[in-house]
Specification:
Layout: H1 11-17, E1 20-22, E2 25-27, E3 30-32, E4 37-38, E5 41-42, E6 47-49, E7 52-55, E8 59-62, H2 70-78, E9 88-90, H3 96-99, H4 102-108, E10 113-116, H5 118-127, E11 134-137, E12 143-145, E13 150-155, E14 165-169, E15 174-178, H6 197-212, H7 216-226, E16 233-236, H8 246-257, E17 262-270, H9 275-287, E18 293-298, H10 304-312, E19 314-321, H11 330-342, E20 348-355, H12 361-371, E21 375-376, E22 381-384, H13 389-409
Parallel strand pairs: 8-9, 9-10, 10-11, 15-16, 17-18, 17-19, 19-20, 20-21, 20-22
Antiparallel strand pairs: 1-2, 2-7, 3-6, 4-5, 7-8, 12-13, 13-14, 14-15
Helix pairs in contact: 2-4, 6-8, 6-10, 7-8, 9-13, 11-12
The structure holds MU-OXO-diiron.
Length: about 400
């Protein structure tokens, strides 16, 4: 017997949360208002796990949600149709924020076939037991006909995992883009045009910087494929759905994928007793030219997510650390390790910092920057204990050089 998930008292409320994208194509996901630490990503505004129900002659569910919220997804579906009526569940991405609820969902949908690519099958079978599930393996160009609408699949490896896939409904010019074009943004609105464009683009930039930055080459390939597709709506698996500003969104993604810098510099630092802090402020002073966006970031007053987001479009970065135990300060090292993993490319910069009886802070930063293949503008700028007025002048000059370099690059 199939369990009932429709809660009578909540039915009207749940119905109102189910937003129609097109006739009989409905958002049925879950809004996670309270998450703040998304595997290390600081999600200041929470997030959503988007799932979509397409009701035609056949009925398809596109993507699911994180494991704890599977019953919510089933309630949302139940308010629209019988769970027996679901013919297909499309899994565009095996990561647990979208596929974690699949065991609960597949158990609750007795007539559903899971549609996925071969790499997704491999990944899911290594995450858990799929025995008893009906599956259909698809590849780029394959289609599933629902009636008046068709699902067409486009494999998008490494956007964000090897098995990632887009699902297009060509008759509706609607693309289900999984992680791509998404944002961690919880709200009662479902469409990007219902909030300010600046806010949604900032969240889209943060998402790209922290999740997709390492995969610029693969994203550029996908964007090229998208040039040939007529799209009026992009429905990602996190955050708001795009039905306007699609050209701007694709252009921004193109620039980010190409590591296109802006006239922007960052002075990022950690400091023990403010010697490195004084140097950072002198560098910023030198770098504050009229037409360059210069920002000062103290790593322990910020977070990894914000620093990676601001680094995405920065042409040049000065990074400083005091010396602790012959190396960088621990949070400076955390930032460097995180940035190195995200592989920001085509940047220029230099390191700076203070030392006392031991050495190694600014040198360790320099080595990290070099290992990311950034253009090193000078040797580490160092101060023994307190920076003298000569050292601070040198910092101002180095800041000016950094800003001039940013102007040359963008
Ligand atoms: Fe939102 Fe790569 O999962």
């Amino acid at each position: 017997m199939v369990q009932s998930y429709a809660l009578s008292g909540q039915k009207e409320l749940n119905k109102s949360m189910n937003t129609e994208l097109r006739k009989n194509i409905t958002w049925v996901g879950y809004i996670d208002w309270t998450v703040r630490d998304f595997h290390g990503y600081t999600a200041e505004r929470g997030t959503t796990y988007n799932a979509y129900l397409i009701q035609d002659d056949k009925t398809a569910l596109v993507d699911t949600v994180k494991a704890p919220f599977g019953h919510r997804l089933l309630q949302n579906i139940s308010n629209l149709t019988s769970l027996n009526s679901i013919d297909y569940v499309v899994c565009n991405h095996a990561e647990p924020d979208h596929a974690g609820a699949l065991p609960e969902i597949m158990a609750a949908l007795p007539n559903a076939t899971l549609v996925l690519d071969q790499k997704c099958m491999d990944a899911l079978s290594e995450h858990g037991d799929m025995s008893g599930w009906r599956t259909k393996i698809v590849k780029t160009g394959d289609t599933v006909t629902l009636g008046n609408r068709t699902l067409r699949f486009i494999e998008t490896p490494m956007v964000h995992w090897p098995e990632s896939m887009f699902t297009l409904v060509p008759e509706e010019k609607l693309l289900f883009s999984m992680d791509a074009f998404g944002q961690h943004y919880a709200s009662t609105q479902r469409f990007a045009d219902e909030i300010s464009l600046g806010t949604v683009m900032n969240e889209t930039r943060a998402y790209y910087a922290n999740i997709l930055m390492p995969y610029g080459k693969q994203i550029a390939k996908v964007l090229k494929q998208m040039d040939t597709i007529d799209i009026e709506m992009i429905a990602p698996s996190h955050g708001l759905i795009w039905r306007t500003h699609i050209a701007e969104l694709l252009e921004a993604y193109g620039n980010w994928a190409a590591h296109q810098p802006k006239r922007k510099i960052l002075v990022i630092y950690d400091t023990m007793w403010e010697s490195t802090g004084e140097m950072a402020r002198a560098i910023l002073e030198g770098a504050s030219l009229n037409d360059v966006d210069a920002q000062l970031i103290h790593v322990r007053s910020s977070n990894l997510t914000h620093i990676a987001t601001e680094s995405l479009e920065a042409a040049a970065i000065a990074f400083g650390s005091s010396t602790l135990n012959n190396g960088m300060m621990p949070m400076a090292a955390a930032v460097m390790t995180y940035l190195k993993g995200l592989r920001p490319q085509g940047k220029a910069g230099f390191s700076f910092g203070s030392f006392g009886w031991g050495r190694g802070g600014p040198e360790a930063v320099h080595d990290f920057m070099e290992s990311m293949k950034w253009e090193m503008l000078r040797e580490p700028l160092k101060s023994k204990y307190r920076p003298s007025s000569e050292i601070l002048d040198e910092c101002r000059n180095a800041g000016r050089m950094l800003a001039e370099k940013a102007k040359e690059m963008a």
